[in-house]
Amino acid sequence: MPCKLAAGNWKMNGLRADLDEMRALIAAHPDPDCRMLICPPATLLAPMADLAQGSRLLVGGQDCHTAKRGAHTGDLSADMLADAGARHVILGHSERRADHRESSDLVSAKARAAREAGLTAIICVGETEAQRDAGTTLEVVLGQLRESVPDGANAGNTVIAYEPVWAIGTGRTPTLEQIAEVHDALRAAVPDAEMSLLYGGSVKPGNAADIFALANVDGALVGGASLKASDFGAIIAALDAA
Length: 242
Ligand code: PEP
What we know:
Layout: E1 5-9, H1 19-28, E2 35-39, H2 42-52, E3 57-61, H3 78-84, E4 88-91, H4 94-99, H5 104-116, E5 120-125, H6 129-133, H7 137-148, E6 158-162, H8 176-189, E7 197-200, H9 205-212, E8 219-222, H10 229-241
Parallel strand pairs: 1-2, 1-8, 2-3, 3-4, 4-5, 5-6, 6-7, 7-8
The protein binds phosphoenolpyruvate.
């Protein structure tokens, strides 16, 4: 069985004071059935990992470099993330593919670096609205999967997140049938049938249960709704109940 995972992506949000939300989350969900993960900005990684000690909360990074160290101003290596307490790292998020022109080849190289550092890579794939309108969703998503997931990836070191670009931060979501179509295709295409498949894009307490009821959805990658313990906690509860 694939692991159930509720993963939060704080993006470029969060100051030290916001760690209180994680204290509240841990207090409200001391022993969830699913894995719960927050990927804060790099500045909060070590303090969040410290406060998560002894709890079920996992912390992760939002990106890593392909190299272990060197002259790469502003970048972080996978080893540095692991050293700060990360267990996972999000790679190939559509905001990085767009804002930093990251290619699937680069994402694959980053996933290899993450694996060498002992991190689980959460590799994101997803179509733009224009690609969906053009009827190329499966071609785009399966192409990104093929090119972004390195050889040797398995359920122990890799998670796939399907995130339609047009659903991220917009409050819009695909229909359940559209999510199921992509997740069923991903399940058939991943190199290890046990690999967890997350859905991401405007997941909220109000729609989580319906999405988690789909056969090949093993959890969610959550942006905005992961910032508040009450919202993310409700999503964790929905995943536990699924
Ligand atoms: C994301 O950042 O990956 C995401 C899915 O954001 P949101 O939940 O806010 O749409």
